[in-house]
Amino acid sequence: MMTIFIVDASVFIYGYRIGEGEMVTVPGVAEELKDAKSTTLFEQAKSAGMRVEPAERRYIDEVVKMARRTGDMDVLSETDIHLLAKALQYMGKDACIITDDYAIQNAASRLGIQVKPIVQHKIMDVLIWKKRCIGCGRYFAQGEICPVCGSKLKRTRRRE
Length: 160
Ligand SMILES: [Zn+2]
What we know:
The protein is an alpha/beta fold. It is 39% helix and 22% strand. It has a five-stranded parallel sheet. The structure holds zinc ion. Zinc ion is lined by residues 133, 135-136, 138, 146, 148-149, 151.
Protein backbone atom coordinates (compact mmCIF):
# COMPACT_ATOMS: atom_id res chain seq x y z
CA MET A 1 0.00 0.00 0.00
CA MET A 2 1.32 3.45 -0.94
CA THR A 3 1.91 5.73 2.02
CA ILE A 4 -0.21 8.89 1.97
CA PHE A 5 1.65 11.91 3.30
CA ILE A 6 -0.56 14.77 4.47
CA VAL A 7 1.80 17.73 4.35
CA ASP A 8 1.64 21.13 6.00
CA ALA A 9 3.36 24.40 5.00
CA SER A 10 6.60 23.56 6.82
CA VAL A 11 7.36 20.86 4.23
CA PHE A 12 7.65 23.58 1.57
CA ILE A 13 9.21 26.21 3.82
CA TYR A 14 12.07 23.86 4.77
CA GLY A 15 12.19 22.09 1.40
CA TYR A 16 11.68 18.77 3.18
CA ARG A 17 12.04 15.76 0.87
CA ILE A 18 9.20 13.24 1.06
CA GLY A 19 9.89 9.59 0.40
CA GLU A 20 7.92 7.29 -1.90
CA GLY A 21 4.22 7.87 -1.58
CA GLU A 22 1.26 10.07 -2.40
CA MET A 23 1.22 13.68 -1.23
CA VAL A 24 -2.00 15.34 -0.12
CA THR A 25 -2.57 18.79 1.31
CA VAL A 26 -5.41 21.26 1.92
CA PRO A 27 -5.97 24.63 0.16
CA GLY A 28 -5.13 26.69 3.27
CA VAL A 29 -1.52 25.50 3.14
CA ALA A 30 -0.88 27.36 -0.13
CA GLU A 31 -1.97 30.62 1.54
CA GLU A 32 0.63 30.15 4.28
CA LEU A 33 3.50 30.15 1.79
CA LYS A 34 4.88 33.65 1.44
CA ASP A 35 8.24 33.34 -0.29
CA ALA A 36 9.24 32.36 -3.83
CA LYS A 37 11.19 29.26 -2.77
CA SER A 38 8.33 27.61 -0.88
CA THR A 39 5.66 28.52 -3.46
CA THR A 40 7.88 27.08 -6.20
CA LEU A 41 8.31 23.84 -4.23
CA PHE A 42 4.53 23.73 -3.72
CA GLU A 43 3.90 24.10 -7.47
CA GLN A 44 6.53 21.47 -8.27
CA ALA A 45 4.89 19.04 -5.85
CA LYS A 46 1.53 19.70 -7.55
CA SER A 47 3.02 19.01 -10.97
CA ALA A 48 4.45 15.79 -9.56
CA GLY A 49 0.96 14.67 -8.51
CA MET A 50 0.31 16.21 -5.09
CA ARG A 51 -3.43 16.59 -4.51
CA VAL A 52 -4.84 19.75 -2.93
CA GLU A 53 -8.13 18.61 -1.42
CA PRO A 54 -10.52 20.59 0.78
CA ALA A 55 -11.24 18.90 4.10
CA GLU A 56 -14.66 17.29 4.46
CA ARG A 57 -17.19 18.65 6.94
CA ARG A 58 -17.78 15.44 8.92
CA TYR A 59 -14.05 15.03 9.62
CA ILE A 60 -13.65 18.73 10.47
CA ASP A 61 -16.48 18.31 12.98
CA GLU A 62 -14.73 15.32 14.51
CA VAL A 63 -11.44 17.23 14.93
CA VAL A 64 -13.20 20.29 16.37
CA LYS A 65 -15.11 18.12 18.85
CA MET A 66 -11.87 16.58 20.14
CA ALA A 67 -10.02 19.92 20.14
CA ARG A 68 -12.76 21.61 22.19
CA ARG A 69 -12.59 18.82 24.74
CA THR A 70 -8.79 18.92 25.12
CA GLY A 71 -8.21 22.67 24.82
CA ASP A 72 -6.29 22.22 21.54
CA MET A 73 -8.80 24.59 19.90
CA ASP A 74 -6.82 27.58 21.18
CA VAL A 75 -3.60 26.54 19.47
CA LEU A 76 -4.86 25.07 16.20
CA SER A 77 -5.40 27.29 13.15
CA GLU A 78 -8.19 26.63 10.67
CA THR A 79 -5.64 25.12 8.28
CA ASP A 80 -4.28 22.90 11.08
CA ILE A 81 -7.80 21.59 11.72
CA HIS A 82 -8.31 20.94 8.01
CA LEU A 83 -5.02 19.00 7.81
CA LEU A 84 -6.05 16.88 10.80
CA ALA A 85 -9.48 16.32 9.22
CA LYS A 86 -7.80 15.24 5.98
CA ALA A 87 -5.63 12.77 7.92
CA LEU A 88 -8.72 11.39 9.70
CA GLN A 89 -10.33 10.81 6.32
CA TYR A 90 -7.38 8.66 5.26
CA MET A 91 -7.14 6.80 8.54
CA GLY A 92 -7.13 3.07 8.01
CA LYS A 93 -4.82 3.56 5.06
CA ASP A 94 -1.09 3.99 5.52
CA ALA A 95 -1.29 7.73 6.12
CA CYS A 96 0.65 10.22 8.19
CA ILE A 97 0.91 13.97 8.70
CA ILE A 98 4.26 15.63 8.08
CA THR A 99 4.68 18.81 10.10
CA ASP A 100 7.03 20.77 12.34
CA ASP A 101 4.09 22.13 14.35
CA TYR A 102 3.81 20.83 17.92
CA ALA A 103 0.12 21.73 18.18
CA ILE A 104 -0.68 19.55 15.17
CA GLN A 105 1.59 16.77 16.44
CA ASN A 106 -0.15 16.73 19.83
CA ALA A 107 -3.66 16.84 18.41
CA ALA A 108 -2.80 14.15 15.87
CA SER A 109 -1.56 11.76 18.53
CA ARG A 110 -4.78 12.31 20.50
CA LEU A 111 -6.77 11.40 17.39
CA GLY A 112 -4.66 8.32 16.72
CA ILE A 113 -3.19 9.86 13.56
CA GLN A 114 0.39 9.00 12.65
CA VAL A 115 2.81 11.92 12.58
CA LYS A 116 6.22 12.30 11.04
CA PRO A 117 7.73 15.38 12.64
CA ILE A 118 10.12 17.61 10.77
CA VAL A 119 13.01 18.37 13.05
CA GLN A 120 14.11 21.95 12.80
CA HIS A 121 17.79 22.73 12.76
CA LYS A 122 17.45 26.37 13.63
CA ILE A 123 20.73 26.72 15.46
CA MET A 124 22.69 25.35 12.51
CA ASP A 125 20.96 27.07 9.63
CA VAL A 126 19.64 30.42 10.67
CA LEU A 127 21.53 33.56 9.84
CA ILE A 128 21.58 35.92 12.75
CA TRP A 129 22.27 39.64 12.68
CA LYS A 130 25.31 40.53 14.71
CA LYS A 131 27.52 43.52 15.13
CA ARG A 132 31.12 43.34 14.04
CA CYS A 133 33.91 45.63 15.06
CA ILE A 134 35.48 47.38 12.05
CA GLY A 135 38.78 47.55 13.99
CA CYS A 136 39.48 44.13 15.48
CA GLY A 137 36.80 42.07 13.74
CA ARG A 138 35.21 40.68 16.91
CA TYR A 139 31.46 39.95 16.92
CA PHE A 140 29.06 41.35 19.52
CA ALA A 141 25.35 40.97 20.09
CA GLN A 142 24.81 44.70 20.57
CA GLY A 143 26.41 48.07 21.19
CA GLU A 144 27.85 50.88 19.03
CA ILE A 145 31.49 50.90 20.10
CA CYS A 146 33.80 47.91 20.49
CA PRO A 147 34.51 47.33 24.18
CA VAL A 148 37.90 45.79 23.27
CA CYS A 149 39.49 48.28 20.87
CA GLY A 150 37.09 51.22 20.82
CA SER A 151 36.32 51.12 17.09
CA LYS A 152 32.83 51.39 15.62
CA LEU A 153 30.58 48.30 15.39
CA LYS A 154 28.84 47.58 12.08
CA ARG A 155 25.77 45.41 11.63
CA THR A 156 26.54 42.20 9.78
CA ARG A 157 25.15 38.74 9.28
CA ARG A 158 26.89 35.72 10.64
CA ARG A 159 26.06 32.05 10.25
CA GLU A 160 25.71 30.58 13.73
ZN1 LIG B 1 37.35 45.99 18.20
